[in-house]
Amino acid sequence: MIPAEARARAPQQQEAARALFVDNLPAAQRTAGERRFDAAGARLHAALSSLYGDRPEFADWYARLLVAIAAAAAIRPASLQALDVQREDDPQWLSRAPPLGYSAYVDRFAGTLRGVRTRIPMLRALGVGYLHLLPFLRARAGDNDDGFAVASFEEVEPRLGDMQDLEDLAAALRADGILLCGDLVLNHVADDHPWAQAARAGNTRYRGFFHVLHDVAEVQACERDLHQVFPQTAPGNFTHVPAMGGWVWTTFYPYQWDLNYANPEVFAAMAAVLLDLANRGIEIFRLDSAPFLWKRRGTACINLPEVERVLVALRAVLDLAAPGTLLKAEAIMPTPDLARYFGSGDDAGHACHLAYHSGLMAASWAALARQDTALLRTQLRLTPALPSGCGWLSYVRCHDDIIWSVLEPERSRPDERAAIAAAARFLSGGPGSFAHGLSVRRADGEGVHGSNGMTASLVGLPEDPRQLADEQALARYALLYALAYWCGAVPLVYSGDELGQGNDAGSGETPPHATDGRWLQRPRYDETRLALAQVGQGTPAQTFALLQRLGAARRRLPASHHETPIEDCSGLDAAILLLARGAHSLAAFNFSAQPQVLDSGRAMAGDWRPLWPDVATAAPAEVTLPPWGCVWWVRA
After folding, report:
1. Which of 152, 369, 471, 624 has its CA 20 to 30 A from that of 115?
2. Do residues 236 and 227 touch, judged by C-beta distance below 8 A?
3. Rounded to 5 degrees, what angle do the CA atoms 401, 313, 255 make?
4. Are 124 and 498 in contact (CB under 8 A)?
């Protein structure tokens, strides 16, 4: 929330700032510019003055920022300006028709950006309306965290294409009704990025873009409060760089230098990157590693209040120059901490439009492993109500670990810590387990940090694509996706899941694959499986058709479904999750390997008709759910 004193200062500069912004727009854009500034200008000033207003140069810096925002708005392509106006006229456009998402690495999905265009028919057949392509900007030479160590925000990775290919792809996707989501890596740049190179060469301005500690005692003091993101592959949060005269803050990998957002020039530079990419056709930005943006000694440097203000300011920048563009928070944090990523107080609904519900994802896997929904029920209880126009991105798997720390509130209880550890052990395979995953230990050796594996491997689908999945493995797959599709405003399919594709068998062959367990769930798209799906054979045909039917059922849910909070109506049976959304949507999920009779309860009173699966199903009060079974109903 923006402090009251910052808001009180805003009117003093608003009139002049408004005139400055509007006067720097082309005449044809000034009416819209005035309207947008009246809606977002005060919010931008309040957020930025709360962060930087005590600097004597703030007024001049803020004026330069407004001129830069107006310049970006002035060159925004006409087609995107028209889209902005359309979405401004229908502010509920996303929640009124929430799309199905799909996430993929460009190279492993289709080779190049041009290759992605050839996948559009497949995406449409699956019902996808939102495509998240993982980092495709030019990455660091050598190790680069699979593209998240960005060496240039102005170039596409050459082996994937160029900026014209990006713009052409964005236009092609828009023509087919698919939103393009791209990563904006906010927290850090690669150590060979021009800003880092200039800093290393002694440029005073760019040295201020980074955090440098000059004393080993300072480093040790900070480390006591900080977490380990990659405890096995990149322990520690600082890297000694002789040319910088000390230790550079590197939360993730030593070659990823954290940006210093306490410096307003960093904010201005990243705002310019945001607007440039939005003008090239990216409609949604996944804000990578958002919780880590602000640093304060003596804290864990995660989820600090200033992070929300940075996000509110970035959203206001977009509202001024590219208001049809959305922000999505990649905040893999305990569920109660996520509300701030949507904005709070007067800023509620004015930060990110979407955020990952990683707690729901992790708890779903724990429920599957334990045949007990207690952790899921807790996550639903902890899920904050969202401002209008905002929503959760729900998912089964992604390119990263299942990070168990998102269940941190539960981990404080010894019994829940033991339950999470048992779930992680189950997913890593062994006697009695259907899963084939990999566990990652915590830095202190106490417990499990995360679990890795593709959905198909973790639910027990067969490795041979020509083999049909057994009934229970396919039911487990359907159960997890049915929960994600029912709960989220934007459910996400991870590339290869629709084909029942398993772990990358070659993930341990060469560095960095051998040291980073996340490569287990980053296989190349299997053309053989795609061909089998297209001719209706084997496991790929089963999983693809299942997601098609599930998507069709989701599109028939009531229009207000995703705006309505979830009510947990579960009874005493620990394996059953019974959820209602308003008076018109009901769903039951059986996280047990045994059939379960549904406890009717008050939520089931009335006249309901089944929506999923698309076969005749009895009314709720009469249902026995099969092993790993689920049913959706709507009011008749």
Report:
1. 152
2. no
3. 40
4. no
Q: What is the torsional sign of CA 72, 78, 79, 82?
A: positive
Tokens in use for 363?
A: 């708890």
pLDDT in the model for residue 563: 81
In degrees and rounded to multiples of 5, residue 10 shows phi and psi of: -60, -45
Helix (H, G, I), strand (E, B) or coil at 76: coil
Q: How far apart are CA 609 and CA 564, in angstroms?
A: 20
Residue 544's SS3 state is helix
Residues in the chain: 636
The whole-angstrom separation of Cα 328 and Cα 391 is 10
pLDDT at site 31: 97
Kindly give, in sequence order, each residue whose CB lies less than 8 Å from that of residue 1, ignoring residues fewer than 6 positions away: 305, 308, 344, 345, 346, 347
* Strands, sheet with 438-441, edge to edge from the N-terminal-most edge strand: 402-403, 448-452, 438-441
pTM value > 0.85:
yes
Which residues in the chain come in under a pLDDT of 70? Answer: 1-12, 409-412, 441-447, 507-515, 600-605, 614-622
Round to whole Å and give the CA distance between 351 and 634.
Answer: 33
CA separation (Å) from 70 to 240, 404, 443, 495, 608?
A: 40, 43, 47, 38, 53
Joined together, the tokens standing for residue 505 give: 């068998």
Angle at 282 between CA 280 and CA 285, to 5 degrees: 135
Determine the angle formed by the axes of helices 58-74 and 264-279, rounding to 10 degrees: 10
pLDDT at residue 619, as a whole number: 62
- C-alpha of 146 from chain center: 16
Neighbour tally for 476: CB within 10 Å: 23
